[in-house]
Structure formats: structure tokens, C-alpha cells
């Protein structure tokens, strides 16, 4: 079948078989930031946004997102770079495997929650495993980033 996707604002068309997963389709299209970790829906590395909501692309059949808006980290370069600086400032740097899915999840959370508590942040991110740094330093980095974005908006 022919699949149509809007990836990072660009319409992409690709022939797929009905049993292909979104992760493989996106990588075939050249979005190599989308990583395969566990491939069982447990680690969050493969997270992308579908209509602005985090989705595990390793567990999502591509046919289910036909015609939808997909966001990968390539589509949020500016925010991702800024976020990485705030994480680094707290000693919470991440490698290229964890960072794309983790960052997209944080950006989605910021659209859903205006002022999340620590518990809400940790809960939102509990599907994104990261062995690069401690979870508390990540929490500080996220909160500092959210505060800076809010200041910029005002
Ligand atoms: Fe998809 Fe781990 S690779 S959740």
C-alpha cells in the first residue's frame, strides 16, 4: 500500500507492506534519529510524536498513522539543541540514543502541562529509559529548561 505521512511539515509518500512498523518506515525515509532500542515497547528510544503526542514507533504499525502529522527530532532542531544545553548544565547529558525520544517526550509534555509537578514530570517520562545520567539531574535540567522557555514567552 501507499502510505502518506506529514513528517516535520513535509509530505512523504512511501510504498509499505501492512505489517511494517513506523520505526522502520521512518528510518527508510532517512529519519535516522529514530532509534531502535528494545523493540518491545519498553525503553522509549523510538519515541516520535504523532499529532503532537508521544508514540512508540517500534510498536505502531505504519498503516495506523496514514495521513497523520509525525514529528521527529529533526523537526525540532532548535528546541533540541537548547534543551541539551540545559541538560548538560545539570550534568544530565544524554547520548544520541536516548536523547531524541526523551527530548520529544519533554516537548510533548510541555504542550500538555502548563506547570507540571515533579511527580507529573517523572510520571510523563517514566517510559523513557536513559542510562546516561541520573534521573534527578534530568529533572533539574527539564525544570530549568521549562522555566527559561516560559521567561522567553513573557
Ligand atoms: Fe521502541 Fe524500545 S525501541 S520502546
Structure description:
The protein has 154 residues and is an alpha+beta fold. It has 2 domains: 73 residues, Roll (Ubiquitin-like (UB roll)), CATH 3.10.20; 78 residues, DNA polymerase, domain 1 (Orthogonal Bundle). Helices cover 39% and strands 15% of the residues. The chain has 5 helices and 5 strands. It has a 5-stranded mixed sheet, with helices on one face. A hairpin with a 2-residue loop joins strand 3 and strand 4. Helix 2 crosses helix 3 and helix 2 packs across helix 5. The N and C termini lie far apart (47 Å). The model has no long low-confidence stretch (mean pLDDT 95). The structure holds FE2/S2 (inorganic) cluster. The site of FE2/S2 (inorganic) cluster (FES) has 12 residues, from loops.
Highlighted features:
five-stranded mixed β-sheet, 15% strand, DNA polymerase, domain 1, 154 residues, Ubiquitin-like (UB roll), alpha+beta, binds FE2/S2 (inorganic) cluster
E-strand count = 5
Bound molecules: FE2/S2 (inorganic) cluster
SSE arrangement, N to C: EEHEEEHHHH
Proportion of residues in helical segments? 25-40%
Number of helices, counting only DSSP H or I runs of 4 residues or more: 5
In round numbers, the mean pLDDT is 95
Query: Which class of secondary structure composition applies to the elements?
Result: alpha+beta
Say which CATH homologous superfamily of the largest domain is assigned.
Answer: [2Fe-2S]-binding domain
Strand content: 5-15%
Task: Give the low-pLDDT segments.
Answer: none
In CATH terms, what is the fold-level topology of the largest domain? DNA polymerase, domain 1
Strand order of the largest sheet: 2-1-5-3-4
Query: What number of structural domains do the residues give?
Result: 2
CATH architecture of the largest domain: Orthogonal Bundle
Largest sheet: 5 strands, mixed
Calculate Rg over CA atoms.
15 Å
For the record, what CATH class of the largest domain applies? Mainly Alpha
**N/C terminus separation:** 47 Å
Q: Assign an overall shape.
A: globular
Amino acid at each position: 500500500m501507499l502510505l502518506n505521512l506529514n513528517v516535520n511539515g513535509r509530505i512523504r509518500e512511501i510504498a509499505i507492506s501492512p505489517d511494517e512498523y513506523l520505526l522502520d518506515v521512518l528510518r527508510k525515509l532517512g529519519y535516522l534519529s529514530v532509534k531502535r532500542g528494545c523493540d518491545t515497547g519498553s525503553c522509549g528510544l523510538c519515541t516520535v510524536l504523532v499529532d503532537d503526542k508521544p508514540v512508540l514507533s517500534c510498536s505502531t504499525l505504519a498503516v495506523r498513522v496514514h495521513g497523520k502529522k509525525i514529528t521527529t527530532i529533526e523537526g525540532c532542531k532548535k528546541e533540541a539543541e537548547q534543551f541539551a544545553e540545559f541538560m548538560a548544565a545539570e550534568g544530565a547529558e544524554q547520548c544520541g540514543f536516548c536523547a531524541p525520544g526523551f527530548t520529544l517526550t519533554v516537548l510533548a509534555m510541555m504542550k500538555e502541562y502548563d506547570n507540571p509537578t515533579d511527580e507529573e514530570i517523572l510520571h510523563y517520562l517514566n517510559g523513557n529509559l536513559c542510562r546516561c545520567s541520573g534521573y534527578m539531574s534530568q529533572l533539574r535540567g527539564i525544570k530549568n529548561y521549562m522555566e527559561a522557555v516560559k521567561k522567553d514567552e513573557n
